[in-house]
Design brief:
The protein has 315 residues and is α/β, with parallel strands linked by helices. It contains ten helices and twelve strands. An eight-stranded parallel barrel has the order 3-4-7-8-9-10-11-12, surrounded by five helices.
Length: 315
């Protein structure tokens, strides 16, 4: 597995990030086997968050961080793993937000759950408009200075809010958000589509990331299995002529490459300029092998161009 720069952080990470959000719902042995396979393929960038985990339909929080910590202790591989976790969304006993106290308190809890001294990448999971931006970025800065966090990222931010936060960090001499994790896939949502509380990538954010050296980490790149599973359908925000045109291009390229739709979507992201880092999930070995098969798919320049340019008005 190749590595790509994590924005302007100065470090490189695996070109495919592995997300373990739903591993609370599978057997520990299965989860560890999937994580082992990701590591065997050269992957080290693992995504989780303080809210991941459910019991009786409620977000209990901390479950996945604890699971990851257990896996690292059993495998003795902390030095080979690049851990990302997040703060901001609500879970049982914790309200939504990223005020300074919450950032620092939740960081301590995440460190303890995972049994680590530092978090490699700590995200603001939401854009908290109720807390002053200066308070937020300064709190993250204190964590970096204390050695509890190495790098910081944003998630579910608009382009202008990301730019504002980074400018404030720059003029204050504080670490800035080096990446943004956002809803993004090959299919484009209809203009004005709302995914609240999630925020989808738009052209403004793509432009900002490309010109300012911010890495784009894509969550939900496979749209919950809708590309390939007959029992899943695309959400209303994606239905329309543009999606039809994009799917035609996707199917054409997939047939030429002997690949699945999922594999082409991930390969398209990996080969974009600049590369997009997809967060890929799997709850079975079969899903893992299909997704990781995208590492062997290399679309040609012509195929990438056709994928990029496909739209309802093309043809």
């Amino acid at each position: 597995m190749r590595t790509v720069p994590l924005g302007d952080s100065g470090v490189a990470v695996s070109e495919v990030c592995f997300g373990i959000m739903r591993h609370w719902a599978i057997q520990k042995q299965t989860s560890f086997g999937i994580l082992d396979r990701y590591a065997e393929l050269g992957g080290s960038f693992i995504d989780n968050a303080n809210i991941y985990g459910r019991k009786d339909g409620e977000r209990t929080g901390g479950v996945i961080e604890s699971l990851l910590g257990e896996w690292m202790r059993e495998r003795h591989n902390r030095a080979r793993v690049f851990i990302a976790t997040k703060v901001g969304f609500e879970y049982q006993g914790v309200e939504r937000g990223v005020d300074a106290q919450k950032i620092e308190r939740e960081c301590e809890k995440s460190l303890k759950r995972m049994g680590v001294e530092a978090i490699d990448l700590y995200y603001a999971h939401v854009d908290d408009r109720a807390a002053p931006m200066q308070e937020i970025v300064e709190a993250f800065s204190r964590l970096v200075k204390a050695g509890k966090v190495r790098f910081i990222g944003a998630s579910n931010f608009t382009a202008w809010r990301l730019a504002e936060a980074r400018l404030l960090s720059e003029v204050s001499g504080w670490p800035g958000y080096c990446c943004i994790q956002q809803r993004y896939s090959y299919l484009r949502a209809k203009p004005g589509a709302d995914f609240y509380p999630q925020v989808a990538v738009n052209d403004d954010l793509l432009d900002y990331c490309a010109t300012r050296g911010v890495a784009l980490v894509a969550y939900s790149p496979l749209l919950g299995g809708a590309y390939t599973r007959s029992d899943r359908s695309f959400r209303e925000q994606y239905r329309g002529p543009d999606t039809d045109a994009r799917l035609n291009a996707l199917d054409s390229v997939a047939a030429e490459l002997g690949a699945t739709r999922n594999q082409v979507v991930l390969a398209w992201m990996r080969n974009s300029d600049p590369p997009v880092i997809p967060v890929v999930a799997a709850s079975s070995g079969e899903q893992m092998e299909e997704n990781m098969g995208a590492l062997e798919i290399e679309p040609s320049a012509d195929q990438m161009s056709r994928l990029d340019q496909a739209s309802a008005g093309s043809g």
